[in-house]
Amino acid sequence: TSFGFKEVREEEKSQMVGNVFSSVASNYDLMNDFMSGGLHRLWKDRLVSKLNPFPGMKHLDVAGGTGDVSFRILETINNIKRRAIQDVLEDDLMEETRIYVCDINPNMLNVGQSRALEKGLGKDKSLVWVEGDAEALRFEDGTMDGYTIAFGIRNVTHIEKVLAEAYRVLKRGGRFLCLELSHVEVPLFKELYDYYSFSVIPAIGEMVAGDRDSYQYLVESIRRFPPQAKFASMIADAGFQKVEYENLVGGVVAIHSGLKI
Ligand code: SAM
């Protein structure tokens, strides 16, 4: 295989992904900062600003992990609420706000719930933690105003199923947004980035989480993920309109979006 790494068969894939997130659930956020040099915070901010959250919205954050994206959405809505003149009306709206953090791994959700407590969001009824699979969501058709998936779709077994489910649960007018590690399209920077990902990231994984193989696998999975244009066409095939993407840092990360019309 490329770079001499062992091939991972499909049935091993979900187990591998499970291992990686169980082994790092507790220091997952530290790892994110380490690997991205803190940039993942800016990328998530960008994702949420594209979503344009509003009080009263129903939102589903799939592969939500420890709640990073959902906290940002809720904080944005809380800020809108603080600025609002008609507090009574806004209180009513907040009652209706629901941000579902859905993840297949209960360890991640547990860490997320502790983080919510630390942030003073523990009693916020708007935040709902749900264990579930992106490929078979337990939500009704046409119930969500927004859907986000950040650094989650790359590791699922069937991307098409995830996209079909996203389309199903969204209301008409609802927005799909996906933040994912993607393909660098700038020469020279691409070579540097390959070196960083194939040499530096597994080394950091070994140092911090004591787990080189899993991080090597994650790097390989970035390689295998469809390039930006191909992924955009998969989103359109799922039924979404106005599909577009934005590259950040030359394509290290891309934000894809689509509308259900
Ligand atoms: N979105 C969070 C963030 O950006 O910090 C977490 C991203 S983390 C890299 C990927 C998450 O996807 C993990 O928490 C993992 O448990 C979850 N995951 C993997 N496969 C999944 C699936 N089929 N359905 C739901 N979640 C899944």
TrEMBL record:
Protein purpose: Methyltransferase required for the conversion of 2-polyprenyl-6-methoxy-1,4-benzoquinol (DDMQH2) to 2-polyprenyl-3-methyl-6-methoxy-1,4-benzoquinol (DMQH2).
Subcellular location: Mitochondrion inner membrane
Biological processes, Gene Ontology terms: methylation
Summary of subunit composition and partner proteins: Component of a multi-subunit COQ enzyme complex, composed of at least COQ3, COQ4, COQ5, COQ6, COQ7 and COQ9. Interacts with PYURF; the interaction is direct, stabilizes COQ5 protein and associates PYURF with COQ enzyme complex.
Primary site of residence: mitochondrion
Annotated binding of S-adenosyl-L-methionine, by residue: 66, 103, 133-134
UniProt name for this protein: 2-methoxy-6-polyprenyl-1,4-benzoquinol methylase, mitochondrial
GO molecular function: 2-methoxy-6-polyprenyl-1,4-benzoquinol methyltransferase activity
Bilayer topology annotation: Peripheral membrane protein
Top-level taxon in the UniProt lineage: Eukaryota
Family the entry assigns: Belongs to the class I-like SAM-binding methyltransferase superfamily. MenG/UbiE family.
One annotated Gene Ontology cellular component of this protein: extrinsic component of mitochondrial inner membrane
Enzyme class at the top of the EC tree: transferase
Pathway recorded for this protein: Cofactor biosynthesis; ubiquinone biosynthesis
Gene: COQ5
Catalytic activity: a 2-methoxy-6-(all-trans-polyprenyl)benzene-1,4-diol + S-adenosyl-L-methionine = a 5-methoxy-2-methyl-3-(all-trans-polyprenyl)benzene-1,4-diol + S-adenosyl-L-homocysteine + H(+)
